[in-house]
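User: My collaborator sent over this chain with a note saying "see what the structure looks like." That's all I know about it. Can you take a look?
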Amino acid sequence: MPPFAIYPVLETLELIAIVILSFFGMEFLARLLHKYVMHGALWFLHEDHHREKQAKLEKNDAFGIIFAGIAILLFVEWLRTGNPLPFAVAVGMTAYGAAYVIVHDMIIHDRHLHLRSWGLRHQPFRKLILAHDVHHREGTGNWGFLLVIRGIDRIPEEVRQEA
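Assistant: Without extra context I'll predict from the sequence alone. Here is the result:
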């Protein structure tokens, strides 16, 4: 079966659902890895991300490279077999990676394009920035990168009052 075979509408909707689930699934996988791996055995790679001043290139960027490598392998598997499932998962992972760079690195941590001041003026980025700042100040809680989830994340009083 060729990689761009035409699928019935139902199968296309299923693949779109897999892309969306993969994107949001990455946030929850990232939360678990952040708490138990990045702040555990691989702290030596993650610790530079917790410094006051962010660098253009950090050891922490290795995590993005690892996930990009996994997505590339999934794209290769799709090309090799024609199975659209690895393609859909890889698209979701890639979209999450792009969102991470824009939201987490550029807006929250002010790296590369330095968008933090813009983010602080716009909801929901302000809420995300202030909640993530708690994690960097205290070293606990708020393990996510793109979402603030009530009941899971510690939301600063300042953000609660704005809501």
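A starting point for your reply to your collaborator: The helical segments are 9-41, 43-46, 61-81, 84-108, 116-120, 125-138, 157-162.
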